[in-house]
Amino acid sequence: MDLRRLRTGEWIAAASGTALLVSLFLPWYATGGESSTAWQSFAVLDVVLALLAMTGLVLPFVTASQRVPAVPIALSAFVTIGGLIGILMVLLRVANLPGAADGREGGLWLALVAAAGLLAGGGLAMRDERLSPPGGHTDLTGRPTAAPPEIERLPAPRPE
């Protein structure tokens, strides 16, 4: 595992996944004088949001452990799509209060920001390409490597 492979997008996705997971335990709705968390308010939505949060948390570990960028880029595409789905799901719950709830609490707003962070982090992770700086050589993950061997130019064969 090499943490030098992590880029800004992976860090944002991990922080957003953590925030989304934490938001599920914070109050989302106020009913009279009492508050309810996402776990108390929903049957399936909370589990889906927890799974989306886990994808954001897994992305840095996959990126740091893979030698080739194909798997992390594919996972970042899933994180991006999951972030978009999470935004839509949370926006639906912002607009449509469950049961007898009469107010929105901070956990709901944190979940909305965290879902947007998953979308942004996944998008940045997909977009960030590691190119070798001038005069230096790196592999596909951005780690320094030895210079490639010089290519010997051969003349074209002469027709007989």
How are the secondary structure elements laid out?
Blueprint: H1 8-23, E1 27-31, E2 34-37, H2 38-41, H3 45-65, H4 70-95, E3 103-104, H5 106-127
Antiparallel strand pairs: 1-2, 1-3
Give a description of the structure.
It is a single chain. The protein has one domain (3-127). The longest helix is centred in the middle third of the chain and has 26 residues, at 70-95. The protein has 160 residues and is mainly alpha-helical. It has a 3-stranded antiparallel sheet. It contains 5 helices and 3 strands, in the order H-E-E-H-H-H-E-H. Strand 1 (27-31) and strand 2 form a beta hairpin. The chain is elongated. The chain has helices spanning 8-23, 38-41, 45-65, 70-95, 106-127; strands at 27-31, 34-37, 103-104.
List keywords for this structure.
56% helix, elongated, 7% strand, 160 residues, 3 strands, mainly alpha, three-stranded antiparallel beta sheet
* Total of helices: 5
Task: Please give the largest β-sheet.
Answer: 3 strands, antiparallel
Could you give the distance between the termini? Answer: 56 Å
Number of strands: 3
Structural class: mainly alpha
Query: pLDDT below 50 for ≥5 consecutive residues: which ranges?
Result: none
Overall shape: elongated
Count of domains: 1
The chain-level mean pLDDT equals 83
* Major β-sheet strand ordering: 2-1-3
Strand content: 5-15%
Radius of gyration (CA) equals 22 Å
